[in-house]
UniProtKB/TrEMBL annotation:
Protein source organism: Paenibacillus thalictri
Keywords of this entry: FAD, Flavoprotein, Oxidoreductase
Domain (FAD/NAD(P)-binding) ranges: 4-319
Name of this protein: NAD(P)/FAD-dependent oxidoreductase
Lineage: Bacteria, Bacillati, Bacillota, Bacilli, Bacillales
Pfam families registered for this protein in UniProt: Pyr_redox_2 (PF07992)
Length: 393
């Protein structure tokens, strides 16, 4: 009898699970349904560019119905409200309930606000196309307001957190704001662009040479770094720092960290700090008919080791492993252990500069080669999913 495969999430993990599963299961063998809250597959690794207005929305927002047309994968646009793993059911916001024989949870992560007062209420986040559009519209509105008000809070942008998300965003702003100011008749020298990082340095864990390169490249283009000081409060018009300083601003973009998805954390499957615990075959440790792909899961390579980071490249690879393992699960065949291939880490510093590491930390890249590699990795992903579309039937 045909199996019901339900995939929650149409991001990297969910999409790749669906397409890979369809390579193995015939239409008669399994009905595959993807549930996503947006009608698009979003290229979240490029959202900083949309937020700064450097690219158009359609470059990072691919219509799922087009991508999945004629591929034997059903698409449901709805928000997952509750997963009931003991009943093998999922309840959606519309009230519809789906049953499954195998479930893939690929709902991604959420922004962590760490209980910092005012942050959730007043800051902007960068987790979706809508978030990026909101940032872009707000910054433009603040600049328009500044022309009239000359209020410093309108001309000050603070990026909270100097991880890769914060650095890529601040780099894009540093490139785009001078152009935007010129188009609005504002002197770019009036603009303050801060990156505030609680740790002693931005990009902690990167080799010092690459950190220095990022800081000098961005400082030259007007970014002011405040490190070793945490953001402790946000109001509508100011950010307060741990050392007592206050920055007047109407724009804080918070990139201070991510946490597990709350729907997953509270659904009754075994979790580790809010992210699903998985076996090496990417099954829930408590519910073997539930498979995990992407940031919703925590994958610990070996006992006592640090978990793998929540990145797009891992979500993609997890999706492919899960797509195959569901087929093996129903056919009592051996499943694959998840053995990720780390192709490297690349971070853009704006449109013409980037840093990166390939082959662990052994090969460091700076400038044009890193920018080229970053562009190439995006193109590689897009052509990979197109390739899979061609393969799926
Ligand atoms: P992160 O957790 O890597 O960085 C958050 C930063 O915010 C940290 O440096 C932290 O010290 C800082 N912070 C936390 N609390 C703070 C406070 N109160 N005040 C000031 N700073 C504070 O988060 P991220 O940058 O969103 O990255 C999440 C994951 O996604 C990481 O694994 C990252 O490598 C990955 N990522 C990869 C890319 C890429 O490959 N190009 C891009 C973006 C994100």
């Amino acid at each position: 009898m045909s199996k019901q495969i339900l995939i929650l999430g149409g991001g990297y993990g969910g999409l790749l699970s669906a397409l890979t599963a369809r390579k193995y299961f015939s239409i008669a063998d399994a009905a595959i349904t993807v549930v996503n809250r947006f009608p698009t597959h979003q290229i979240i690794t490029e959202l900083h560019r949309l937020a700064a207005g450097s690219i158009a929305e359609k470059a990072v927002s691919l219509p799922l119905d087009k991508l999945l047309r004629d591929k034997g994968v059903n698409l449901v646009i709805d928000t997952v409200e509750q997963i009931k793993p003991d009943e093998k059911k999922v309840v959606l916001q519309s009230g519809v309930t789906y049953s499954y024989d195998a479930l893939v949870v690929a709902l991604g992560s959420e922004t962590a606000f760490f209980g910092i007062p005012g942050l959730q209420e007043y800051s902007f986040i960068l987790k979706s196309v809508n978030d990026a559009n909101r940032i872009r519209a707000h910054v433009e509105a603040c600049l328009d307001a500044y022309k009239v008000s000359k209020n410093k809070a309108d001309a000050t942008i603070v990026v909270g957190g100097g991880g890769l998300t914060g650095i890529e965003l601040v780099g894009e702003f540093a490139d785009k704001l001078p152009e935007l100011c010129r188009s609005k008749g504002i002197d770019f020298n009036d603009i303050s662009l801060y990156c505030v990082e609680a740790a002693p340095s931005v990009l902690m864990g990167f080799p010092q040479e690459l950190i220095d390169r990022a800081v000098s490249s961005l400082s030259k283009r007007g970014v002011e770094f405040i490190t070793n000081v945490a953001i402790t409060e946000m109001t509508k018009t100011a950010v307060t720092l741990k050392d007592g300083r206050t920055i007047e601003t109407n724009t804080l973009v918070w990139t201070g960290g991510v946490q597990g998805n709350s729907v997953v954390a509270n659904c009754g499957i075994e979790v580790n700090r809010g992210r699903a615990s998985v076996t090496e075959t990417l099954q829930s440790t408590s519910h073997p008919d539930v498979f995990l792909a992407g940031d919703s899961a925590v994958v610990i390579p070996s006992e006592g080791a640090r978990p793998y980071p929540p990145t797009a490249q891992l979500a993609w690879q997890m999706g492919e492993t899960v797509g195959h393992n569901m087929f093996a699960y129903f056919n009592n065949a051996p499943m694959d252990s998840f053995t990720p291939v780390f192709s490297g880490t690349l971070g853009s510093l704006g449109r013409k500069d980037a840093i990166g590491m390939i082959g662990g930390k052994q090969t460091q890249l700076k400038g044009a080669p890193a920018t080229f590699m970053k562009e190439a990795s995006n193109v590689r992903y897009l052509s990979h999913i197109q390739g899979l579309f061609a393969l799926a039937y």
